[in-house]
């Protein structure tokens, strides 16, 4: 099985999403993108977000427009429009919209500076 792909989900609706959270950008990984038949991808987030007084760490994304396919995100420059769902007791509920794009690798928490090994005189 291949390595999961890291994505950035920018939440644009609801417009005040960023007011409730640190940022409108959610970062996470998904292996669902490797299945060409998948119409929706579940993205496991690196953190969590707050929505309707509940915390979530997983989202489900689907194309925002009929006839589109999520795999187009790999051909896009700025991102691909998506509907964003959060999990409820009754299943997934699409309540948000935004853009999906590939994200760079996360910065290493323990990055070593090149000059740390330098012996001082």
UniProtKB/TrEMBL annotation:
Region (Disordered): 99-121
Name of the protein in question: Uncharacterized protein
Acidic residues bias: start-end ranges: 108-121
């Amino acid at each position: 099985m291949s390595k999961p792909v890291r994505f950035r989900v920018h939440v644009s609706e609801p417009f005040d999403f960023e007011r409730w959270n640190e940022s409108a950008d959610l970062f996470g990984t998904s292996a669902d993108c490797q299945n060409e038949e998948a119409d929706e991808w579940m993205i496991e987030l690196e953190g969590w977000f707050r929505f309707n007084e509940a915390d979530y760490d997983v989202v489900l994304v689907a194309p925002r427009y009929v006839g589109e396919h999520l795999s187009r995100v790999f051909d896009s420059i700025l991102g691909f429009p998506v509907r964003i769902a959060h999990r409820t007791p009754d299943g997934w509920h699409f309540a948000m919209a935004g853009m999906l794009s590939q994200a760079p690798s996360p910065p290493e928490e323990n990055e070593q500076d090149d000059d740390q090994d330098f012996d001082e005189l």
